[in-house]
Specification:
The chain is an all-alpha fold. The protein has three domains: about 90 residues, no CATH class; about 180 residues; about 80 residues. The N and C termini lie far apart (about 165 Å). It is flat and about 170 Å long. The protein is about 85% helix and about 0% strand. The chain is built from ten helices and no strands.
Length: about 400
C-alpha cells in the first residue's frame, strides 16, 4: 500500500503543468491534459486514502500487504507439506498392512474415551450433589427426631387429661351442670340462689344468720365463676393437646417421607457410584487397548488419551477398576450367601415340619393303642361277668 502511494506521488510530480505565459497550443493541450490527469490522480489518491483508512480500521492496526502475502505463501507451503506427510503416512500404513479404516476406528475409540472421561466427571459431580442432598436430609431428619422427642417428653411429663367436654346451655350454670354430673340432680342452683336472697331479706332472722346466708350466696357465686374458668381452661388445654397431637403426627409423617427420600437418595448414590466404577473400568480397558496398539509399532501424531492422563490418574483408574471388580464379586458372594441362607431356612422349616408330623403320628398311635387297651379291658370285664357266664352255659 505504501509503495502504491509513493507511485501516485511520483506520477503527480511528473505530470505537474508548467505555468509559463509563452506556451503554444500544443503545450496548452498538454497542460490541460496534465491538469485533467492531475485531478483524476488526486481523486484516485483520496479514494485510496479512504480505502486504506477503512482497511486499517477493520484490521485493527496497520495493514501490510507484503506481510499478508508472505503469511499466505507460508500457510500454503505448510498445507502442501502436511498433505505430503498425510500421503506418506497412508503409504506407510499400507506397507505395514494397515488401512485408513483402522485409523478411523482408532480415532473413534479416542472420541469414545473422551466421552467416557466426560461421563465420569459428570457422574462424580452428580454423586457429590447427591451426597450433599443426603447430608441435608439427614440434618433435617435429626432435627425432626429431636422435635418428636421433645414432644414425646412433654407429653410424658404432662398428666393425662381426659375431660369430657361440657357445654353450658342457656339458663344453666356451671355449678348446676357439675352437680348433675356428680349425681346430685335434686339441687337447683337458681332456686337455691333465690331462696338465699329471700332469706337474706327476711327480717325475722338475726343479723348473724343474715350474714351467713349472704356469705353462702357469695360462695356459691364465686364457685360458679371458678367452675366456669376451669371449663374454659380445660377447653384451651384440650385444644392445645389436639394441636400438639396434630403437630406430632405431621412430624411423624414428614419424618417418614424424609426416611423414604433418604433411602431413595442412597439408592441413587449407590447406582451412580456403580456407574462411575463401570465407566472407569471401561476407560481403563480402553487405555490398555491403546497401549497394546502402541506396542505393535503404530506411531501417529495427534492427541492421545494416554498422553492427556498422568501416572496418578492412571493409577486411580486402576484402583477404581479393581474396586469395581471387588464390588461385583462381593455382590455375587452376597447373592450366593442369600440364596444359601434361604435354602437353609427352607430346609430347617421342612425338617421342623417333618418333626412335628412325626410327633403327631406318634401321638395318634399312642391314642389308638390306649383306645385298643380300653376296648380290650372292657371286653374282658364283660366276659368275666357271672350272669353272662350263666347265660352262656344255658
Amino acid at each position: 500500500m505504501k509503495k502504491l502511494l509513493w507511485t501516485l506521488m511520483d506520477r503527480l510530480c511528473r505530470f505537474t503543468p508548467d505555468r509559463t505565459p509563452d506556451t503554444e497550443p500544443e503545450e496548452v493541450c498538454m497542460r490541460e491534459e496534465a491538469e485533467f490527469r492531475y485531478c483524476q490522480l488526486t481523486q484516485e489518491y483520496q479514494a485510496l486514502q479512504r480505502a486504506y483508512a477503512l482497511l486499517a480500521e477493520t484490521s485493527g492496526g496497520t495493514y501490510d500487504p507484503e506481510k499478508e502475502i508472505r503469511n499466505r505463501e507460508q500457510l500454503l507451503s505448510e498445507i502442501s507439506r502436511y498433505q505430503t506427510r498425510v500421503t506418506d503416512l497412508e503409504s506407510a500404513l499400507k506397507q505395514q498392512g494397515l488401512d485408513v479404516q483402522w485409523v478411523e476406528e482408532k480415532q473413534a475409540l479416542y472420541q469414545r474415551n473422551q466421552q467416557l472421561v466426560e461421563k465420569v466427571r459428570q457422574m462424580e459431580a452428580e454423586e457429590l450433589q447427591l451426597e450433599n442432598e443426603i447430608q441435608d436430609i439427614r440434618d433435617q431428619n435429626e432435627l425432626l427426631e429431636f422435635r418428636i422427642l421433645e414432644l414425646e417428653e412433654r407429653e410424658r411429663r404432662s398428666p393425662a387429661i381426659n375431660f369430657h367436654q361440657l357445654h353450658f346451655p342457656e339458663g344453666l350454670s356451671p355449678l348446676q351442670i357439675y352437680c348433675e354430673a356428680e349425681g346430685v340432680p335434686d339441687i337447683v342452683i337458681s332456686e337455691l340462689m333465690k331462696k338465699l336472697d329471700i332469706l337474706g331479706d327476711n327480717g325475722t332472722l338475726s343479723n348473724e344468720e343474715q350474714v351467713v346466708v349472704i356469705q353462702a350466696r357469695t360462695v356459691l357465686t364465686l364457685a360458679e365463676k371458678w367452675l366456669e374458668s376451669i371449663e374454659v381452661t380445660k377447653s384451651s388445654l384440650q385444644q392445645k393437646m389436639l394441636d400438639i397431637e396434630t403437630e406430632k403426627d405431621l412430624f411423624s409423617k414428614q419424618k417418614g417421607y424424609l426416611d423414604e427420600e433418604l433411602d431413595y437418595r442412597k439408592q441413587s448414590m449407590d447406582q451412580a457410584h456403580k456407574r462411575i466404577l463401570e465407566l472407569e473400568a471401561m476407560l481403563f480397558e480402553a487405555l490398555q487397548r491403546e497401549e497394546a496398539f502402541m506396542m505393535e509399532g503404530l506411531k501417529m501424531e495427534g492427541g492421545r488419551l494416554s498422553e492427556t492422563l498422568t501416572d496418578e490418574e492412571r493409577d486411580g483408574l486402576q484402583r477404581a477398576m479393581d474396586q469395581w471388580k471387588r464390588s461385583v464379586m462381593c455382590e455375587l458372594r452376597e447373592r450366593d450367601a442369600q440364596i444359601l441362607r434361604d435354602r437353609m431356612e427352607l430346609l430347617t422349616l421342612t425338617q421342623q415340619r417333618i418333626k412335628d408330623l412325626e410327633e403327631f403320628i406318634e401321638a395318634q398311635k399312642r391314642q389308638i393303642k390306649e383306645l385298643e387297651e380300653k376296648v380290650w379291658s372292657r371286653n374282658t370285664d364283660h366276659l368275666s361277668d357271672p350272669t353272662l357266664k350263666k347265660s352262656l352255659t344255658l
